[in-house]
């Protein structure tokens, strides 16, 4: 009995710690994303030029994401987040110095390292979240991602306020580095012990598999397609909703940051509500509604003639982006025997889209405008509707 109570307390502490780490990740990423118009101004970049700079972070993530599962196995999820956080802190320091001095190339190199660190951190936190969810009794992965969105909302508001006040971005970044170091050091102490992520308690005689085998599984790849659409829907907003608002509607930088905050707030609310929606309607029906909402929201945002209608589009866009990623993580972890490998694969696909997709939109934006480039996302969401049955769980039945 005492041992069971102790295990429950450990899981409860890990749940809170995972919630905090997700929130910090969102705050750091969105606080940076909300200031991207300032980055473009500092280096006098066109949308395509800004996209190329952001692509450096995407390349870093593409390299880091496939390796993240192995890093988590070697260092544990807590060790992976600490190592990734250290790399992010170093990279953001170089970015801050580059912005202060107008150094474009060092900034790009630092963003490559930033992307690598983000990839390792994100896979590690999702592996931790999936394990915490499995050891509990309720669906909680959407709430972890709601913490990410909540942190992103706070980060976006901070970014918008600091932009309005004229606070230099380099100073903004240095303060974030200090905050992040403290929270990572404390929060990861309460992650699940490393040995609980292993399958020592599984039935004996199970075949040993390479962690690369999950890349050949049709269901895992189909889940990855759903997550790809959701990640592109979310990632494009992180990088382009502020810029699209500024350029497409002739708004101020602070207004662009606030529009991003509207998107994030909508996504956060629907992620908090996601657990009850999933329990009532099932994964497949819920995700289909999310994808349709994203398509509608994007169409409204792209063709809106004013700020107010664009904000309504951002609300639908945020709601549509809310549940694809967390549900994909849970679906990938349904079979505890191969959860780590499958979560790593799905995370890799999702975060590759999250980080590489938006820079590609920047290049398209050079030819058709940033707002109209966002229509590509609506097309991807439409295609991914066909893959939603892959996320069905046994308790969903036919839903």
Automatic annotation (TrEMBL):
Q: Where in the cell is it found?
A: Cell membrane
Annotated membrane topology: Multi-pass membrane protein
Q: Which one of the record's GO molecular function terms can you name? A: transmembrane transporter activity
Annotated source species = Microlunatus elymi
Keyword Metal-binding among record annotations:
no
Q: Cite the Major facilitator superfamily (MFS) profile domain residue spans from the record.
A: 11-396
Q: Which keywords does UniProt give here?
A: Membrane, Transmembrane, Transmembrane helix
Q: Which PANTHER family match?
A: BYPASS OF STOP CODON PROTEIN 6, INNER MEMBRANE PROTEIN YBJJ
Protein name (record): MFS transporter
Pfam families xrefs:
MFS_1 (PF07690)
Q: Answer whether the UniProt record assigns the keyword Transmembrane helix to this protein.
A: yes
InterPro entries linked: MFS, MFS_dom, MFS_trans_sf, MFS_Transporter
Q: What is its main location?
A: membrane
Annotated signal peptide = none
């Amino acid at each position: 009995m005492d041992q069971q109570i102790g295990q429950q307390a450990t899981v409860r502490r890990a749940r809170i710690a995972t919630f905090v780490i997700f929130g910090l990740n969102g705050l750091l990423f969105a606080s940076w994303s909300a200031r991207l118009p300032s980055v473009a101004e500092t280096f006098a970049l066109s949308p395509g030029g800004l996209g190329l700079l952001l692509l450096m972070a995407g390349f870093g993530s593409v390299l880091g994401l496939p390796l993240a599962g192995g890093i988590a196995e070697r260092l544990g999820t807590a060790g992976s987040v600490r190592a990734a956080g250290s790399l992010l802190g170093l990279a953001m320091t170089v970015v801050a110095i580059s912005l202060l001095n107008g150094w474009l190339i060092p900034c790009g190199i630092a963003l490559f390292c930033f992307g690598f660190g983000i990839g390792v951190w994100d896979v590690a936190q999702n592996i931790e979240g999936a394990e915490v969810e499995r050891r509990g009794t309720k669906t909680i992965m959407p709430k972890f991602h709601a913490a990410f969105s909540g942190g992103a909302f706070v980060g976006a508001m901070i970014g918008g306020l600091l932009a309005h006040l004229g606070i230099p971005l380099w100073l903004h970044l240095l303060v974030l580095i200090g905050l992040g170091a403290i929270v990572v050091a404390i929060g990861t102490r309460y992650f699940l012990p490393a040995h609980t992520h292993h399958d020592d308690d599984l039935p004996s005689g199970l075949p040993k598999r390479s962690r690369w085998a999950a890349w050949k599984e049709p269901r895992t790849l189909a889940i990855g397609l759903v997550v790809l659409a959701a990640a592109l829907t979310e990632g494009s907003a992180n990088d382009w909703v502020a810029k699209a608002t500024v350029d497409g509607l002739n708004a101020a930088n602070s207004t662009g940051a606030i529009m991003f905050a509207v998107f994030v707030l909508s996504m956060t609310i629907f992620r908090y509500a996601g657990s009850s929606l999933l329990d009532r309607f099932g994964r497949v029906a819920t995700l289909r509604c999310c994808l349709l909402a994203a398509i509608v929201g994007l169409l409204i945002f792209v063709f809106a003639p004013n700020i107010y209608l664009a904000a309504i589009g951002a609300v639908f866009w945020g709601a549509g982006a809310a549940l694809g990623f967390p549900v994909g993580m849970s679906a990938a972890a349904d079979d505890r025997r191969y959860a780590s490998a499958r979560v790593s694969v799905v995370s890799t696909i999702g975060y590759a889209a999250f980080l590489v997709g938006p820079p590609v939109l920047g290049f398209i934006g050079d030819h058709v405008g940033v707002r109209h480039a966002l229509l590509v996302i609506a097309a991807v969401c439409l295609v991914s509707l066909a893959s939603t049955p892959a996320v069905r769980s046994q308790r969903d039945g036919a839903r």
